[in-house]
UniProtKB/TrEMBL annotation:
Belongs to the C1D family. Residues 146-175 are annotated as: Disordered. One of its GO terms (molecular function) is RNA binding. Residues 156-175 have a biased composition (Basic residues). It comes from Ciona savignyi. This is Nuclear nucleic acid-binding protein C1D.
Length: 175
């Protein structure tokens, strides 16, 4: 069959397909020419699982394309459920990586932050503060609104602190 027997647009599509298929072969060449143990020797378990999932997804995607080329509806074929299963595992790996990269709570810094938010700084070192249980138990504090402020019963010390605070306010307004 000569090139003139079919439309030029179809010829362009075939050339593009051939070029893309060559790129896929180049990309997969390291995986196909070397032993799996050589590829995974220095990988951590997460990267190893990613490699397995990408390989499984690629094989199933090629089979999906094969089914389409043969006129079979791949949406009703078991390969669809296999691709969905692989996507689910890819999502699980992403969740694990996100948890690993999530910010960690620094207990002492959180305590200092809450103490400074509760008091204005004048003689606050003389006042005992109660830190919310969520911080004491190493739970992650999502925002400062999540931490409850625990009011202490009024004592001589807190009365004196309040009195000193009101005197300082009066002095500032008089100036």
């Amino acid at each position: 069959m000569a090139e003139d027997d079919y439309p030029q647009e179809l010829n362009d599509v075939f050339k593009s397909f051939d070029a893309n298929l060559s790129k896929v072969e180049e990309t997969l060449k390291p995986m196909l020419t070397s032993q799996r143990s050589d590829l995974t020797r220095e990988m951590d378990p997460i990267d190893n699982a990613k490699l397995d999932l990408v390989a499984a997804y690629a094989v199933n995607s090629f089979y999906w394309t094969y089914l389409i080329a043969n006129g079979v509806n791949p949406k009703s074929h078991p390969v669809k459920s296999e691709l969905d299963r692989i996507k689910t595992y890819m999502g699980k790996i992403k969740e694990i990586e996100d948890k690993k990269n999530a910010p960690k709570l620094q207990k002492e810094a959180a305590k200092r932050f809450i103490r400074s938010a509760m008091f204005d700084g004048d003689n606050y070192s003389n006042v005992e503060t109660k830190v919310p249980k969520s911080i004491e138990n190493d739970a992650v504090v999502v925002s400062t609104e999540a931490a409850e402020v625990v009011e202490e019963p009024t004592t001589k010390r807190t009365k004196k602190h309040k009195k000193n605070k009101s005197i300082k306010k009066k002095r500032k307004t008089e100036q």
